[in-house]
Amino acid sequence: MNMQHSLLRHAALAAQHPAIAALLSAGPPPADVIDAFLAFHDLPITEPGAATFAFRGEATRVELVRAGADSARTDLFRVPGSDLWILRLPVEQDDRFEYTLAVHRDGRAELIVDPANPHRIGDATGERSVCRSHGNHRHVRAETDGAPAGLIETVAVSSETFGATREEQVYLPPGYTPEGIYPLVVIHDGAGFAAPADVAAALDSLIASGDIPPVVVTCVQTRDRSGAYHGARRHGRYLVTELLPVLAARYALSLLPHDRVLVGTGLGAVASISTAVRYPGAFGGLVLKAGAFVLDQGKLTTSPRPVFHGTARLTRGLQRAGTLPATRAFVSAGDLAGPAPESRALASFLLERGADVRLASPSAGDNRQNWRDQLRDGLKWVLRPERDAG
């Protein structure tokens, strides 16, 4: 009965895509027809609202395993009388996710990249296949492909808050002129998470494509990331009362809050939201990859990691915060071990305080390409280049 149910479900799913329906229209396809199908089609086959995956090989079971907080698994269905497995998976429009295939043979499962999909990405956690749903077929390249290149300068900031002179990296967009007016983006850990040259190349690509307006960007660093960020009081004071005045005196920056953006991942996201709450109106844009932002006090105070005890004190204070004036926020979990529920809780926290929030899909992995893609999506959302047109 279970086998019959699986076949019926397989037929119902497969018949929804014309290419698959044509492949199966004459019954189990012979090997040469399957070969021709796999050679002709770019897999997965994407359409609005769905993506169709195919795997060929002998197995007792094949699962698609999405990379993400929940590592969701979905069975592919074997075409009777063949070694072809098919899955038509509902997906969100303009989404991107990474996955592997779990191929079960001889009582064990092997995780492999999708042999039919040439698009892959690798990092310290391993190699994964990449599916871009309908409407999401490009990403921010690490190379500029001939686009005009910006400049990177080092700016010294004498800080009474930290009792030291700090050197911050500043990106100036191609064609920067003192007569212009530029938004300011502050990226936490920009030089550590992705080297300054990588940040600059991503920004060059974003500006050249028109995705974002020309911006001035500073990548702030700290030697004591845990100590500075999970409390963030001194860090916020440094950003608003010391760094901003130095940058404003040196560069042609917009004075409008919606042209000032904080970007942070993990504890950098904690520092970003803390600064926005403590200094309302100083920054009108937030791009947060929020893996370390946990609002559940029980989880924080019982965590074996001491850094979260400091975060617990911070979030207790933040939950008493008032309205955030004219703030747009882009929130993404986007971490293979990232807590998507906590990111949704952060989005709700910001919405309750009057922010305009976009919560991104939490399915992407934690690597430089995803960071560049999320930088594009986040900056497009918070900077709203279309505002000048309407």
Describe the protein's architecture and organization.
- The chain has twelve helices and 18 strands.
- With 390 residues, it is α/β, with parallel strands linked by helices.
- The protein folds into two domains: 2-132, Immunoglobulins (Immunoglobulin-like); 151-389, Alpha/Beta hydrolase fold, catalytic domain (Rossmann fold), CATH 3.40.50.
- The strands form three sheets. It has an eight-stranded mixed beta sheet with strand order 11-12-14-13-15-16-17-18, sandwiched between helices. Strands 3, 4, 7, 8, 9 and 10 form a six-stranded antiparallel beta sheet that branches.
- Helix 8 (267-278) links the parallel strand 15 (260-265) and strand 16.
- The longest helix is centred in the middle third of the chain and has 18 residues, at 233-250.
- It is elongated and about 75 Å long.
